[in-house]
Amino acid sequence: MPARLFRSAKADRNRFIALYVSMAVGLLVAAGLFVYEAKVIVADSLRDEEAFTVLGTANRVLHDLENAETGQRGYLLTGDESYLVPYRQGIRDLDDTILRLQQAAGSDERSLELLRRVQHAKTDKVSEMARTIELARSGNRAAAIALVQTNEGQLYMVELRRDLGLLLNDWRERRNAAMQDAHQRLVFGSAALVAIALLVCCLMVYTVYIQRRAFARVHAHSNALDQQAAQDALTGLPNRRRLLSAIDKLSNQAGDSRRVALLYLDIDGFKNVNDALGHSAGDVLLRRLAESLRAATRQNDMLARVGGDEFVLLAADCGDDSQLRDLAERLLASVRAVGEREYGGRFSIGVSIGVATFPDRVKSVGALLDVADAAMYVAKRSGRSTYSFGASSGAGLSNVIRLTR
Length: 405
Description:
By secondary structure, the chain is α+β, with helices and mostly antiparallel strands. The protein folds into two domains: 3-204, Up-down Bundle (Four Helix Bundle (Hemerythrin (Met), subunit A)); 240-389, 2-Layer Sandwich (Alpha-Beta Plaits). 72% of the residues lie in helices and 8% in strands. It has ten helices and five strands; from the N terminus they run H-H-H-H-H-H-E-H-H-E-E-H-E-H-E. The longest helix is centred in the middle third of the chain and has 78 residues, at 152-229. This is Diguanylate cyclase. It comes from Burkholderia sp. (strain CCGE1003). Keywords: Membrane, Transmembrane, Transmembrane helix.
């Protein structure tokens, strides 16, 4: 793996770790905040229930007093004992209601102070009502009515309503504050949840982006390795591996009726250049030859370097023998031209070419390479810088190798 790709992969790994740690920490922090907010909302709900109880009980105190006062006034005006029923009921319930109100108010100092004043006013009011009823029951109704007309009981009720009103206002404000706080925290929690969800989604999208980029780099590197494995490093032409793969692919196309030709080329005089000028000059010559041979072939044909000074041209749709002879002549001319241009006749540079065709001369596509290789050696032995056609044994054109010049 190249150092640059290794550094990139390491950086991507660090980004992954940072992203996952960030998401984990963010989710833990969010969970902690939500737990805290939930506790506060529960506390607000309890305060709301407490305030609701205080408000309901305080209103019950007024209701009991009003019932008792209504019974008192009715009895004083009519002398009917049935009016004492709501009076007695109100007096009985009043003590229990005051006790529940004190319990509901808890330890709040202001509420307890107001309740002490309410308790005192309630006691005075109850005492005033009891005195009037006793006077009336003893036959002194006029004195009882006169006591009522002094407005003593009304003053007690005014004090009691005032203090209960203050108590009610305090607890209404507390209830409203608790409800408003719970509402704000719910809104904040919902907004925070949406923000965290969006953030997590963005982090996940970014993570996917980094993963795709990392995979793309690895894939590109893998493709580059595959390309390098199938490409000759010196000339940039396909190598023997890629050539064999192309031949296998043609072999698998059983229904293809096209005529396939394979030309095996061996450079004549290359060893002299290597020995006289060195391997660097030989490499330069091979690159020049590759460029010239590629220019002399069709675009769809595969020109490969299979080793040393040997090249192979695979033509999947080669036409008749006359076209192959023209192609071989072009290849011969291109190689001679490179030798003249590079060395000015100092070295005799040429090429020996062996030609094999399927299905007329060779029984299978897989045998093209061996037959063309053998034909190339026949051409080399027959004087070099020429070409020969070869055929498989039993192909009907020759016994083993048939030469055509």
